[in-house]
Design brief:
The chain is mainly alpha-helical. Helices cover 78% and strands 0% of the residues. It has three helices and no strands. It has helices at residues 12-22, 25-68, 71-76. The longest helix has 44 residues, at 25-68. It is rod-shaped.
């Protein structure tokens, strides 16, 4: 009597990935689109945080450079 052995997923993520891999291409595309749309707001928030951080770095660097210059030199620019 031959028995077939199937390997059981070892974690819930493994089970999900096995189910995903065995799904039709249209189901895979729909699920992928859902995941991307669900995380789009978080990704945009993170992108904005990075932009603000870089802008603040530049502003503080310019402030530091401005403090190092003599006042007369700064006034001559106006």
């Amino acid at each position: 009597m031959a028995t077939s052995t199937t390997q059981q997923p070892t974690s819930p993520l493994d089970a999900l990935m096995a189910h995903f891999a065995s799904s039709s291409k249209s189901v895979q595309r729909a699920f992928t689109k859902y995941i991307i749309e669900t995380n789009a707001e978080e990704v945009e928030t993170r992108r904005q945080q990075i932009m603000v951080r870089e802008s603040l770095k530049q502003a503080f660097q310019e402030l530091k450079e401005g403090k190092a210059r003599p006042v007369e030199e700064l006034l001559n620019e106006f």
